[in-house]
Amino acid sequence: MIRSVVRGYGAALPKRVMSNRELESLVDTSDEWIVQRTGIRQRYIAGEGETTASLGAAAARAALDNAGLTPDDIDLVLVATSTPDNTFPATAVDIQNRLGMTHGYAFDMQAVCTGFVYAMATADAHLRAGLAKRALVIGAETFSRILDWEDRTTCVLFGDGAGALVLEASEGEGTNADRGILAAHLRSDGSHKEKLYVDGGPSSTGTVGHLRMEGREVFKHAVGMITDVIEAAFASTGTTADDLDWLVPHQANRRIIDGSAKKLAIPLEKVVVTVDQHGNTSAASIPLALSVALADGRIKKGDLVMLEAMGGGFTWGAMLVRW
Ligand code: UT7
């Protein structure tokens, strides 16, 4: 059977780092509150000329270099983002153009913080259906541009950045020993819309809008939803937490990450955490965290890695990958 195998990874961050201390001068907050409640110490903020497309293209180039491939080898560019450069065309076609590609196809996927898991599952389906042979799957965001910088309950939480993986269709045996994506479980429930949304859009207000969140309400649902899809991925593959080498969660809040790992009996030594450095970068957070753990040698070829995310919608999902 066809498996979608990870061939390369890359990341890109804006030049500017914003510390918790700097936020103290913008809103009524403190480094202590932010660290204690979220684990975040700093985030990167896009400056002039840095956009979702420019960061995504930089991450894509890095992933191609890491894979030893060129844009000619890619036939699908899939971008997970909620902060596109334009309402249309898709940021993915902008990135395709920046890579000098006029072949293949490119499109965006919008599932907020779960976007990267949705995009990986979608690319996997396209590769297995024979629509494409190699895909660039990119998570890229500039949430700083949809934040209300006077709202301390949200502006301290988010950051900008991009990460990318190259997926390649390869022949597998159909067992858990195969390299590649072994399982994906995606969920959504639109009845939670008001708990995390942007109060604008082309068809409603004609404006871009600002992010609004009832943090406590999101928090209440997060651990249960995350553990539910991870357990579904374990059940569908006959694996358990003991088989896992790494959990790479969406990086929203250290307390959510720790709570989910504890409930699943996954030791914290097996959990990749970058929320302290990046803040919540929505669809970019998983590929950014992967890039850190791949670059420092923690995640190795053959490792069993669980990805998970939960966010606006609500949307949530988990994916089991043999690296
Ligand atoms: O990626 C998408 C998914 N999003 C998430 O996963 C976010 C989920 N939610 C969270 O991570 C947490 O709910 C937050 C980090 C947003 C908030 O933490 P919390 O422990 O739920 O705090 P809270 O909202 O219950 O607020 C506690 C207190 C409040 O004051 P009172 O009412 O107790 O007097 C807030 O007004 O903290 C206050 N507060 C702040 N204080 C200093 C809220 N924001 C701040 C702030 N600085 N930035």
Tell me the layout of helices and strands.
Blueprint: E1 2-12, E2 16-19, H1 20-24, H2 31-38, E3 42-45, H3 52-67, E4 76-80, H4 91-98, E5 105-109, H5 115-128, E6 134-142, H6 152-155, E7 160-171, E8 180-188, E9 196-198, E10 211-213, H7 215-237, E11 246-249, H8 254-263, H9 275-278, H10 285-295, E12 304-311, E13 315-322
Parallel strand pairs: 4-5, 4-6, 11-12
Antiparallel strand pairs: 1-7, 2-3, 6-7, 8-13, 9-10, 12-13
Helix pairs in contact: 3-4, 7-8
List key phrases describing it.
323 residues, alpha/beta, Peroxisomal Thiolase, Chain A, domain 1, 2 domains, five-stranded mixed beta sheet, four-stranded mixed beta sheet, 10 helices, 13 strands, 32% helix, globular, binds oxa(dethia)-CoA
Task: State the CATH architecture of the largest domain.
Answer: 3-Layer(aba) Sandwich
CATH 4th-level superfamily of the largest domain: Thiolase/Chalcone synthase
- Helix-strand pattern: EEHHEHEHEHEHEEEEHEHHHEE
The helix/strand class is alpha/beta
Strand content: 25-35%
Main sheet: strand order: 1-7-6-4-5
Oligomer: single chain
Query: In terms of per-residue confidence, which ranges show pLDDT below 50 for 5 or more consecutive residues?
Result: none
Tell me the overall shape: globular
Count of domains: 2
Biggest pleated-sheet summary: 5 strands, mixed
Distance separating the two termini: 17 Å
Radius of gyration, Cα only, in angstroms?
18 Å
CATH fold-level topology of the largest domain: Peroxisomal Thiolase, Chain A, domain 1
Number of strands: 13
CATH classification class of the largest domain: Alpha Beta
Small molecules in complex: oxa(dethia)-CoA
Task: Report the total helices.
Answer: 10
The share of residues in helices is 25-40%
Overall residue-averaged pLDDT value: 98
